[in-house]
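Letters spell out the chain; backbone shape is given numerically. Take this protein:
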Amino acid sequence: MREKKENTTGIVARIEAGEFEVDHGDYQRIARLCLKSDGKPYTADYVRKVLLGLRKNAVIEKKALAYFRKKQSMYKALQKIS
C-alpha cells in the first residue's frame, strides 16, 4: 500500500477528523470545479484519491476546502430558517 503524501491544506486530516462530511456526489462536483491544463475536468475518482491522501494536487485540495466550507455555511443557514 502506498504511503499518504503530506497535505498542504490539511483537507485530508479534516475529512478524517469528521470536520467535513463527504456526501454522494461531492467528488463529482469538486471535479467539475477543477480543470486540467487541457481544459477538461478531473475525474471524480482522481479527486477521491486526492482527498484520501493517495495523490497530491494542491489545486484540488484548495478548491475542495473552499467547497466544503461553503457547504457547511449553507447547511447552517438552512438550519436557522427551520
About this structure: The helical segments are 11-17, 26-33, 44-51, 58-81. The chain is about 55% helix and 0% strand.
